[in-house]
């Protein structure tokens, strides 16, 4: 598990080098790494797989999941994909975000994020979209994606998915709800946004 270094002109891992790779896959809040491993079966071994999570145990699990599936998943221990910028700006072909989407009080969200437990994986603040709102407001998503790059995010009804779609459209992304499904008590929505 490595923390990203600041990009410099002499750094061989600069964004210009990343752009030469066939596919760059970035998963924010990777959890167990199962989704990343599944995507690797589709995209193949020539892609670069970068995964982030706030929980150290999740990043360790991601490494193990990658090893068992014979794919190199590269986890970074961080609370946000912002830590990878500007090195991967304009280089990401596929960005998947599995945010902490459960509606909680701000105090509960903060207390659960500072603990080293699974609670931090679901506490999402007053609207359940605190981190996603920040990514949208800072224009992070279109800045990370290359032209034609795709962003997928999971949301629940309490997150107001239509409002999230409108917010993404307001920053120049082609966004829509592409899947809606019930999982036990939760109504899940998959939102896709494409950088034109």
Q: Which short descriptors sum up this protein?
A:
196 residues, alpha/beta, 7-stranded mixed sheet, 7 helices, 30% helix, 27% strand, globular, disordered N terminus
Your description of this structure?
- The protein is α/β, with parallel strands linked by helices and 196 residues long.
- It is 30% helix and 27% strand.
- It has a 7-stranded mixed beta sheet with strand order 3-2-1-4-5-7-6, sandwiched between helices.
The largest β sheet comes out as: 7 strands, mixed
User: Structural class per helix/strand content?
Assistant: alpha/beta
Low-confidence stretches: 1-22
Order of helices and strands: HEHEHEEHHHEHEE
Return Rg in Å: 16 Å
What share of residues are in beta strands? 25-35%
Provide the residue-averaged pLDDT.
80
Give the fraction of residues assigned to helices.
25-40%
> What is the strand tally?
7
Ends: how far apart?
A: 33 Å
Compact overview of the structure:
The chain contains 7 helices and 7 strands.
List the helices and strands and how they pair.
Blueprint: H1 15-18, E1 24-28, H2 34-43, E2 48-53, H3 56-68, E3 73-77, E4 92-97, H4 106-114, H5 130-137, H6 140-144, E5 145-156, H7 161-170, E6 174-183, E7 186-194
